[in-house]
Specification:
Chain A contains no helices and eleven strands. Chain A is mainly beta. Chain B contains no helices and nine strands. Classes of the chains: A mainly beta, B mainly beta.
């Protein structure tokens, strides 16, 4: 059974870059698309973007210019970079596998990232 | 790109059935079968309940079902149980090769 685990700093200063890693176990990362989502406190889920092992990716139109996704199949990891963060980027960030129907069928437990000086 | 529209809350008594609607546009729900539904408890990761409008992943109770008509998708939960009390989110693939979520619906089991 596939498992995903997010890791990275829990506190980022405004205007700096948020960097997160998702480590995948129990499945080969080269088989699927992999995605990032987030949920600010008290609000709904937001799709950030997806990446395939080939390196092809697509990001949310609203975050496109600030988001970079990358992947390292040899380590079964993929990565999120979000530049120029503000308090509005404070959220629980989730990584997930995109399975049938482009649905997120397996999720990490989530990691809270707070943007504050 | 605005979020899909869901009711903020729905409620029902144990044993009853409820329906949660999810309204989008011809750029998302109306154009694809790639509609999915997620169950989320506070502090927990979302769980996929329905994909491709009406398919259930292995292990999900058949009390959960889905449908779609035009730009609106629906999640139906029959035989409500206390453990169904959670937040539910719909999601759709879009014409920009991205994904959009609904605003979320809080289900209360009375």
């Amino acid at each position: 059974q596939v498992q995903l685990q997010e890791s990275g700093p829990g506190l980022v200063k405004p205007s700096e870059t948020l960097s997160l890693t998702c480590t995948v176990s129990g499945d080969y990362i080269g088989t699927y698309n992999w995605a990032w989502m987030r949920q600010p406190a008290g609000r709904g889920l937001e799709w950030i973007g997806r990446i395939h092992a080939s390196g092809s990716s697509n990001n949310s139109p609203s975050l496109k210019s600030r988001v970079t996704l990358s992947i390292e199949p040899s380590n079964n990891q993929f990565f999120l970079r979000l530049t120029s963060v503000t308090a509005a980027d404070t959220a629980v960030y989730y990584c997930a596998r995109e399975g049938a129907g482009r649905s997120a069928d397996s999720w990490g437990q989530g990691t809270l990232v707070i943007v504050s000086s | 790109q605005s979020a899909l529209t869901q009711p903020a809350s729905v409620s029902g008594s144990p044993g009853q059935s409820i329906t949660i609607s999810c309204t989008g546009t011809t750029s998302d729900i109306g154009n694809y079968k790639y509609v999915s539904w997620y169950q989320k408890y506070p502090g927990k990761a979302p769980k996929l309940m329905i994909y491709d409008v009406s398919d259930r992943p292995s292990g999900v109770s058949d009390r959960f079902s889905g449908s779609k008509s035009g730009n609106t998708a629906s999640l139906i939960i029959s035989g409500l149980q206390p453990e169904d009390e959670a937040d539910y989110y719909c999601s759709s693939y879009t014409t920009t090769d991205s994904r959009i979520f609904g605003e979320g619906t809080k289900l209360t089991v009375l």
